[in-house]
Amino acid sequence: xxxxxxxxxxxxxxxxxxxxxxxxxxxxxxxxxxxxxxxxxxxxxxxxxxxxxxxxxxxxxxxxxxxxxxxxxxxxxxxxxxxxxxxxxxxxxxxxxxxxxxxxxxxxxxxxxxxxxxxxxxxxxxxxxxxxxxxxxxxxxxxxxxxxxxxxxxxxxxxxxxx
Length: 163
What we know:
Shape: globular
CATH topology: Molybdenum Cofactor Biosythetic Enzyme, Chain A
Number of strands: 6
Number of domains: 1
CATH architecture: 3-Layer(aba) Sandwich
Strand content: 15-25%
């Protein structure tokens, strides 16, 4: 059972001006895989607040994977990659690279994604786009490797058997 946290980053959603559609769409996809959504939360696009919650969640031991949705583009308040970079200890560039590559097959706007992925302790953090469609499509791209990634992070002795 993979345990997920979903962090939606949106000024408007955090103020209640717009319903969060991305977080629930991701939760639906995760549960369809028979995985667990431990917590969902919405924050404004504030780098220090994002850093704080990412570190708290990763350090708690309650999550195997934290997904962020939103704040990965070129807008001045899009600071999710910077906040993520500040808390991760190791990069996982292949995940972001494959998400961008697959997204480019659908839209040239994928070139504007600054999303990153990385590891803090034994928790994988993955930035996803803010749109429900983009978030779900990007997560679907990496779903096949997530069980093995979690096995490796947990130092599971059987992780190499499934490789």
